[in-house]
């Protein structure tokens, strides 16, 4: 398997649920990213990890919690989400800063 | 505020014509520039990277960069209906005290429609 894979592809959850999004990259890259894409808005960077260390956190609410156990895997743990958190969540990876980022297919998240 | 501006469109061109997509950015120190294509309901797909002033060609695509004018463009020659998508411009700013240098700043995208 190649590229960046994300699971699940679709997720519907209530505001009180806890769920996790998973991302795996098979490109041998050192950096991994979480982005949020909402309608009519640019992609918003949420978190960046380089060699398993978080290097950027763009004022994301604490109900989103990232985890990077190794350079190939990235998780986004979700709890007590709000309806405005409904969006497409995209994982990406790159070899290093300034290098092209390659995206997974995304998780379409709907909060009831 | 580091901004990347694109005309939202839709830009409509006939099949076989040249589509010209434009992007301006506010961070003068930006070093890396990317064009992504995103079909409806799909994730962004990298189509071009450009790092220095001038033109870079790859098949039917040409990226043009002018750092002095803070302007980057994408030309699509011999446009096909399958090119109909949203094109995202992404800019990588220089690292600062508040920016690791990893993030890409994205524009909202330009919707391209190629009509048969």
Provide an overview of this structure.
- The complex is a heterodimer of chains A (112) and B (116).
- Chain A contains no helices and 11 strands.
- Chain A has strands at 4-7, 10-13, 18-25, 31-37, 44-50, 53-57, 64-70, 73-79, 87-94, 102-103, 107-111.
- In chain A, strands 2, 4, 5, 6, 9, 10 and 11 form a 7-stranded mixed β-sheet that branches.
- By secondary structure, chain B is an all-beta fold.
- Helix content of chain B is 0%, strand content 51%.
- Chain B is built from no helices and 11 strands.
- In chain B, strands 2, 4, 5, 9, 10 and 11 form a 6-stranded mixed β-sheet that branches. In chain B, strands 1-3-8-7-6 form a 5-stranded antiparallel β-sheet, with no helix packed on it.
- The A-B interface holds A 31, 33, 40-43, 45, 48, 50, 55-56, 58, 88, 90, 94, 97-106 and B 4, 31-32, 34, 36, 42-46, 49, 88, 90, 92, 95, 99-109.
Provide a short characterization of the protein structure:
The complex is a heterodimer of chains A (112) and B (116). Chain A has 112 residues and is mostly beta strands.
List the helices and strands and how they pair.
The complex is a heterodimer of chains A (112) and B (116).
Chain A: E1 4-7, E2 10-13, E3 18-25, E4 31-37, E5 44-50, E6 53-57, E7 64-70, E8 73-79, E9 87-94, E10 102-103, E11 107-111
Parallel strand pairs in A: 2-11
Antiparallel strand pairs in A: 1-3, 3-8, 4-5, 4-9, 5-6, 7-8, 9-10, 9-11
Chain B: E1 4-5, E2 11-14, E3 19-25, E4 32-38, E5 45-50, E6 54-58, E7 61-66, E8 71-76, E9 85-92, E10 105-106, E11 110-115
Parallel strand pairs in B: 2-11
Antiparallel strand pairs in B: 1-3, 3-8, 4-5, 4-9, 6-7, 7-8, 9-10, 9-11
